[in-house]
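Methods — Computational structure assignment.
A single polypeptide chain was analysed. Its primary sequence is given first, followed by the predicted tertiary structure written as structure tokens.
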Amino acid sequence: MATIYKPGNSRNYSIKFYFNGKQYHRSLKVKNKRDAERLKSEIEMAIAQGAFNPEQLVSGVRKETLLFDFLNDYLQYLDSRRNKYSPRTVECYERSVVKLRQIIGNIPLKSVNVKLIETKILPYLESQFKPATVKHNIVNFRQIFSFTVKWELLPKNPFSGLAPKLSREMPVFFKESEIRKIINYFNRPDGVPWQQLYFLLMLNTGNRKTELFNLTWSNNIFLDEQVIKFHGKGNNERIVPLNDFAIHLLRSADRRLGEERLFWEVKSTSTIDSAWQYARTKIGLRYKIHHFRSNFASWFIMNGGNPIALMKIMGWEDWQTVKVYMGLSRDFIKSHRNVVEF
């Protein structure tokens, strides 16, 4: 009689059985108990018929992993990490799992490849959602499928290195005339001081909306070092250098006694959204707040900045993100015509 069990911290079921007077322990390489029970029955039948080789246990009976099985296992893993992930993060990944099931259904996991992504997944997303949402979903799918490699279900993450095509069509940097309009609008005499500080600081640092909103003098702003510091998990620290104008803005900031936050007047990020919505209408621009970030990245490179330094400043971990955010003007590209000449 065979027995199935999960050894230690393993995700896969193993089986213990006797064959020809000898005890064997073998991994079934399946994480679902129902699959393990089915394999157990097949093994017991093969032993009874005398047509069984314990050294070739897996090759003869292993079941092909289906997409739904993998996603169910991923949801169980996600549920076990609720104390480490924020509720919003868990909900976001759960929605992505549901969306993935709706798009491609229950197919063999190995069938999820680059061709399927380009012919079925991307076209569906691009027909249903805005470019930013398409990018967001692809990033989530990439994170979910990273476990196919970790759990040895696939040799490579099929979403690795994928940048959604539509996101490249997003306006990624402001023209010099548009930058001048933004500066003039927020520098006007009747302007709101916190708005001037916020949007001109964003223009000169490329920080995210919430990062600026949460800045504090003691934890993030170090004027003597001419940097802003963001503290990540463990001892990880991201440093954003401040140019002379950004330092001038911060030294001129209206500080409130006993208040650590730089933008103490602003109670929520919705106030920032409303301010930019009104401002861009007055200026006559179509850009969203997040485009300040891609604008900074583009001008950083076009003004001679190092791409690796840019990744560190922006907090990016892969080159695909750089490709999505960074745009180059035609004049900048033309200026490189003699870079290589033999």
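Note: Strands lie at 3-5, 14-19, 22-27, 221-222, 227-231, 237-241.
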